[in-house]
Design goal:
Largest sheet: 7 strands, parallel
Radius of gyration: 19 Å
Strand order of the largest sheet: 3-2-1-4-5-6-12
Number of helices: 10
Number of strands: 12
Oligomer: single chain
Helix content: 25-40%
CATH class of the largest domain: Alpha Beta
CATH topology of the largest domain: Rossmann fold
Distance between the termini: 27 Å
CATH architecture of the largest domain: 3-Layer(aba) Sandwich
Length: 267
Amino acid sequence: MVRAVVTGAAGRMGGRIISIIDAAEGIELAGALEHAGHYALGRDAGEVAGIGRLGVEIKDDVEVVMTNADVLIDFTFPDVTIENLKIVSKLKKSAVVGSTGFSGNDMEDVKGIAESIPCVLAPNMSIGVNLMLKLVAEAARTLGDDFDIEMVETHHRMKKDAPSGTAMKLAEVAAEAVDRNLSEVGVFERFGMTGARGKKEIGVQTLRGGDVVGDHTVYFYGTGERLEITHRATSRDTFATGAVKAALWIAGRTPGLYDMQDVLGLK
């Protein structure tokens, strides 16, 4: 039995992950976390998630809660995630990370920590999006430089980072497939007299509004035709289910940084 701890237990994603864990086989909720001063501290995680009492109290001490657990499921923010991973490393546990918005330096920190613990890091844990990554890479390789690559992502008005981690991953996968460096060819805003589109450009545009869970479309524009690959998430349960699948998969793995392609056997 895999014993999991969920961060952000009183949030929308944390609540859904707790609900999925409660219904899944082979995994149980060993702990629930929120930040110091949060209104839900001391309350039962199941009751806060709306599924009834589970006998797991929401706490704010990661090290104490992780001591008798196997894996931390972390959907927070980069700075919080990195501090949590340091504690997980100290305790020689495992981690599943769905946080987004990591800088280059942040990623170096994560990679360093993952040398000592098994860690799944994915900006999007839905099965559909991870299949989309594979399809986008294959399309980009096949179509090559004869097609222009653009993408648009849409999320709810409360999302803090832009572009989304999923959009950035899609752009990175596409760039790699056509032997380009995204940091050199990525275009994230167009305004005014920008001139003709560069042949090597990969455009990533961001929309924010309403309660959109997450939409991503990658366009391959050719002459006389275009290919569109789209994924639309209508429920956070897609991400929560993927996170629980990753937690079951990562338990007992050797140290290293993994992603959902590894979890789903898509590599």
